Amino acid sequence: MNSFDWDRGFQLDFDRTTGFSRGAKTTKRTLSQMRGMFFDEDAYGKALEQGDPLIYEFYELGCPERPGDLAFGTTVLYPGTVGDEYYMTKGHFHTRRMTSEVYYAFSGEGYMLLENEEGDVRALPLSSGQAVYVPRGYAHRTVNVGKDPLVVFFAFDADAGHDYGTIETRGYRRLILRGEEGVQIVPNPKWNEREGA
Predict the structure, then answer these.
(1) How far apart are CA 111 and CA 68, in angstroms?
(2) pLDDT per residue over 68-81, tens digit each?
(3) CA triplet 156, 160, 163: central angle to 5 degrees?
(4) Is this structure's pTM higher than 0.85?
(5) Over 60: is that where the pLDDT of 67 sits?
């Protein structure tokens, strides 16, 4: 486990190109850990038969989940597709819904998919040198639509918590797909409106 002095301060390096740190370890998400996240289940099964590639990795720095602290780190999302759907993070709401988050792209090209429980959906482009503000009450997922890793820095209130279960159950209302004419953002026919259904 990473050990940092959250009460007295510390320094930590992040490479602006790769997103990696010499002072912290990453948590890795492979294709097998993304079961149920991709729309095309047949394509997912076929991709998994070819191996278990690394989809993304991120830093969990062990920030105490207490008011007043800021959790932060980097996510490295690798390029690729499952069927026509681009590699993505699982995505989440914050348990404390009224929490905002900021993402800054060091390198790569992608989208931040935002969605609130009332049905407002946005897909904001994200590329090197750009920041995205995720407002309170919005689930968010990072999608890599480029040929290189998408490397983003993030920061949010440490006591926000993560609700992955809602997304695992319902999915997102939109999919970001590779199309003949480029990136397509389309309705997800598998989106489940009923909580827990």
Answers:
(1) 29
(2) 999 999 999 999 99
(3) 115
(4) yes
(5) yes
